[in-house]
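Sample intake sheet
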Amino acid sequence: MNTFPLGSVDVNRIGFGAMQLPGQRVFGPPRNHEEAIAVLRRAVELGANHIDTAQFYGPEVANELIREALYPYPDDLVLASKVGATRDEKGAWLPAQRPEQLRSAVEDNLRTLHVDHLGVVNLRLHPDDDSVPDQSVSLEDQLSEMVSLRNEGKITNIGISTASTAQVETAIAQAGIVCVQNAFSLLDQSDIATLELCQQHGIAYVPYFPLGSAFPGMPKVTENATVQAVAARIGVTAAQVGLAWLLNRSDNILLIPGTSSLKHLEENMNVADILLSPEDIADLNKAV
């Protein structure tokens, strides 16, 4: 499997995202606890040496599953988490952007994962923070707290998520970020400027919604006729085609497909072996 640097560590370009391990709406315990543990262990066996998680997945559920399944962690495993959000008792997503909240979230991640530092922590931004009075915090102040946490050794590397190109530029200049997590897929390439900025700086780009938005009524890569036709032609699934296209699109793209199913995990990890021909790429590019 090809690799790309995530900070100072070269990681395989297909990792694992833990967001789907908790229950419905990323809230509460997993549907099948034993399978969730098995998925995590199998992901590492298949070469996923970076795992994306967050304290607010569950909350705490994803981190606790990771610890149960993998602790003590393999030496080459990079644990990447994110801060900037929290959940209420009903599972609603709330911003938590104040510096003291960012610090508390990092420390909560350290506790639940049972580590003394995190390989990467992504600052998850919220476009509507100004609508919440106590969450109107400048990006510079948030990044300053992240840098302080890095200087203290609690974070090895800093990333940013759900950020505009201008915000990414600020984060590069102020915090020396190593990755960006934004929405990007074959059918949604609106963030192309940020991807290209990351390419120029040797920064990993980690797309969420890699198969299209999870929200109802939004385009899904797996439902696209051209994607389905290419998949049938080469004998793989439409989801595998969508992920393989991303790996082909730019060598700084890292994938973190998530699943709670061993079957889907195997399919996701096998994407590294799928070779799209120039004809396949040309057809897929016409599908945009």
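Comment: The chain has ten helices and eleven strands. The CA atoms of residues 169 and 197 lie 8 Å apart.
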